[in-house]
Amino acid sequence: MRLDLRNTGKMDARDIILDEAAKLFKQKGLKNVTMDELAKSLGMSKRTIYENFKDKDELIETCLLKFSTDGLARRSKILDTNSNVYEVMYQFALLQHDEMNGVSPEFFDDLHRYYSAMLTELKHKSEDISLKLLKRLFTIGIEGRYFRDDTNIEVASLLLDRLFEFAIKLIDDYHIQPCEMYRSVFLPFFRGISTDEGLRELDKVNEKMCTHKKQ
Fold it and tell me: Do the Cβ atoms of 198 and 205 come closer than 8 Å?
């Protein structure tokens, strides 16, 4: 069955293509998905795809940018609705788990092997938004007295951003479990900047995370 895109408009067609491409890329990896397969899955001609994306590289780049911007938007929404920074980070962890659920190892292998330059460029594009989100997190944490008031927001935001990069690399390169990465890298960091009240909230979140892991 072919999709009738005549009345959907160009942007709608792009969104339809992006959604299907993202699903296939996550399931099979970036290299394994061909434009022929995508067209067949969509029920449209390859010509329609190429009218919206000049080639597969542009399609992949747009998908990656969408992954990044959508993820940051979801995290910003969580931060907007909760002033307890440790509950926010727990929700971030649940979101991260949901986002990674069902993503094939081939996706990450292809991303680092064939599209590392693209990944670096996209990170630069989203870095300002990411750092602003982290600065908001630390500001709210200090104002809510979860973090010590002598915490340097600028330094802490940059450090946490780099810790995320470091953690992803170790997980990919050495197959370290995310839970172990959390215990060994992130937990000591947050314990170091927490107030007494913050430590109590951190312990509550740790208990919930352990319970969630067992389910």
Answer: no
Q: What is the pLDDT of residues 28-81, one digit of tens each?
A: 999 999 999 999 999 999 999 999 999 999 999 999 999 999 999 999 999 999
Which letter does DSSP use for residue 209 in this model? H
- Please report how many Cα atoms fall inside a 13 Å half-sphere around the Cα of residue 139, on the Cβ side: 9
Question: 155 lies in which domain range?
Answer: 61-214
Alpha carbon 51 to its chain centroid, in Å, reads: 29
Please, which residues bridge with residue 52 across strands? none
Domain count, the chain: 2
pTM over 0.70: yes
Give residue 142's identity as a one-letter amino acid code.
I
- Residues 6 or more apart from 197 whose CB is under 8 A from it? 145, 146
